[in-house]
Design goal:
GO biological process, one term: menaquinone biosynthetic process
Distance between the termini: 62 Å
Oligomer: single chain
Shape: globular
Protein name: ABC transporter substrate-binding protein
GO molecular function, one term: lyase activity
Pfam families: VitK2_biosynth (PF02621)
Largest sheet: 6 strands, mixed
CATH topology of the largest domain: D-Maltodextrin-Binding Protein, domain 2
Number of helices: 14
Strand order of the largest sheet: 2-1-3-10-4-11
Number of domains: 2
Helix content: 40-55%
Keywords: Lyase, Menaquinone biosynthesis
Structural class: alpha/beta
């Protein structure tokens, strides 16, 4: 009897030992950095709209990663935070990502394209329906020597009418809107969501030219796209937390998809965040903000072509030189 009890006891001890070993083996083999706290910075505009669903879910602890979000009005504020390591991921204009790459000597990588072109020609003149129809006319716009200016000049040049279109620069989009209001058939180049807000105040105005369409006509099958915003990550954070970064990319893709498929619900989140004052304007603007999620080789091809155009206009607009291959994070090649 004593021998049977002894055997039974040893069996129990053996089972416990096996369970403990299996638990230890599982624990040792698991990557403890599958999730992480990710500090995300973005700009108050279309590039942040695609994050709205992610922000909502993060607030409710429904995502694998923990996120903190910082929203600024200027890329000049986000860049120092990335350089100092106070942000891990940032959503910035495509050319600013290139500048950041040069400033940090290659210490950031592009994860995805989050927003395509947001520029539209606005006018009450319904005869304006293509670049060629701008011949002999004046276009009002903001930001001489900025990316919208370079994009427009490139497109006009490719259409062969650069010298036959007058560009008149204003300080603020509100100045362009005021001219469109006062001068019949005036033409202005404006970004979303300001376009939608302007149209809501004047039913005589409409979007007469989509600059994305004009870009695509000229670029053809080269794969380049008119890029507004991209997402960059600090390489140090990426190397130490790659699974968490991949989680972010998945969350970002799903968030952008949700916003595009549910503009009414997303508009409430946009209003709450303060990006656009009224949900009704946000709902109308979202379909034209070209919120997207493009990563991998497709993103590389799209962004390379866009940066090349800017570089040809003014090399300093992309940081003086074009980024090399290491600028682009391709998950399946890492």
């Amino acid at each position: 009897m004593e021998q049977k009890k002894s055997i039974s006891s040893w069996r129990k001890i053996g089972c416990v030992f096996i369970v403990v070993c299996l638990f230890a083996l599982y624990g040792c083999g698991k990557d403890t950095k599958e999730s992480a706290t990710v500090r995300v910075g973005s700009l108050k505009g279309p590039t942040s709209i695609g994050l709205m669903r992610m922000m909502e879910q993060a607030e409710s602890n429904k995502l694998t990663n923990d996120y903190t979000f910082t929203m600024e009005t200027s890329a000049d504020t986000l860049l120092p935070l990335m350089i100092k390591g106070e942000l891990d991921i940032a959503l910035v204009p495509g050319n600013v990502a290139s500048i950041l790459y040069q400033k940090t000597q290659g210490k950031v990588s592009v994860l995805d394209i989050n927003t395509l072109g947001v520029l539209y020609m606005v006018s009450s003149d319904q005869t304006v329906d293509s670049l060629l129809s701008l011949k002999g006319k004046t276009v009002y716009l903001t930001g001489k020597g900025t990316t919208p200016d370079y994009v427009l000049q490139y497109l006009l040049s490719q259409a062969g009418i650069k010298e036959e279109v007058t560009l008149e620069y204003k300080s603020e989009p509100t100045e362009v809107a005021a001219i469109l209001e006062k001068e019949e058939n005036a033409i202005g180049l404006l970004p979303q969501p300001f376009v939608t807000a302007t149209l809501a105040k004047n039913d005589k105005l409409s979007m007469v030219i989509d600059m994305n369409e004009e870009w695509n006509k000229i670029q053809g099958d080269k794969g380049s796209l008119l890029v507004t915003g991209v997402t960059v990550v600090r390489n140090e954070f990426l190397q130490n937390n790659e699974k968490a970064v991949l989680n972010f990319m998945k969350d970002h893709q799903e968030s952008a998809k949700y916003v595009n498929e549910n503009p009414k619900d997303a508009s409430l989140l946009v209003e709450k965040s303060g990006i656009i004052e009224k949900a009704a304007i946000a709902e109308a603007a979202i379909p034209f903000c070209n919120i997207t999620y493009i990563d991998g080789i497709e993103a590389k091809t799209a962004l390379e072509g866009y940066l090349q155009v800017l570089f040809d206009q003014n090399a300093e607009s992309v940081g003086g030189v074009l980024p090399n291959e290491e600028f682009y994070y391709i998950p399946n090649e890492k």
